[in-house]
Specification:
Blueprint (H helix, E strand, L loop, with lengths): L2 H16 L31 H16 L6 H14 L2 H11 L5 H30 L4 H13 L26
Helix pairs in contact: 1-5, 1-6, 2-3, 3-5, 4-5
């Protein structure tokens, strides 16, 4: 996989984690019940506080990266952006879902606007992440890449967590 594609994937995964993309939704009835219709069941059971979840992921990533003092300022810039945005996207979607006065086309248009705002935020988080990523050693990049590959699979019904495991340990240092 090309390096730039890895960076984008890593940023997206880490940024989404930090943005609280798997935050709280109100439990509903059946598959199409509630103001979000078919999407209602997709977010049920996601009860983690997005800010706490972002902090947890950031702490784990930082510990595994073993940053140098020179990398710390760039890490802080990235982490601050992630923390500042944690939960905003899911809150906007929740607010939209609870506005029952919207007709379907208006609701969809508002969802598009919310998603455009999230893309702009992700681009900002990506810029901060890329600056930090570019300073990482090859071993640190491998660790970041592993974290990025596992983001979105950290819940109890995804990836290795379902089998009682967690994120795999970082790979051994490169030889030679």
């Amino acid at each position: 996989m090309k390096s730039s594609k890895k960076i984008v994937l890593a940023m997206a995964a880490i940024g989404l984690a930090g943005l609280g993309s798997w935050a709280v939704a109100q439990p509903g009835g059946g598959y199409c019940d509630g103001p979000m219709g078919m999407m209602g069941g997709g977010m049920r059971g996601m009860k983690a506080d997005p800010g706490a979840r972002a902090e947890q992921h950031l702490n784990r990533l930082k510990a595994d990266l073993k940053l140098t003092p020179q990398q710390e300022p760039l890490w802080l810039a990235f982490a601050d952006k992630v923390k500042a945005e944690a939960g905003k996207g899911i809150q906007a979607m929740r607010d939209n879902a609870q506005d029952l006065s919207l007709a379907a086309p208006e609701r969809m248009a508002r969802m598009i606007d919310i998603m455009k705002q999230r893309v702009a935020t992700m681009e900002s988080v990506h810029a901060a992440f890329k600056q930090m990523y570019d300073t990482l050693s090859a071993d640190q990049k491998r660790v970041a890449d592993i974290h990025a590959a596992r983001m979105g699979h950290m819940g109890p019904h995804h990836g290795t967590m379902r089998r009682g495991g967690g994120m795999p340990p970082p790979p051994p240092p490169a030889k030679g």
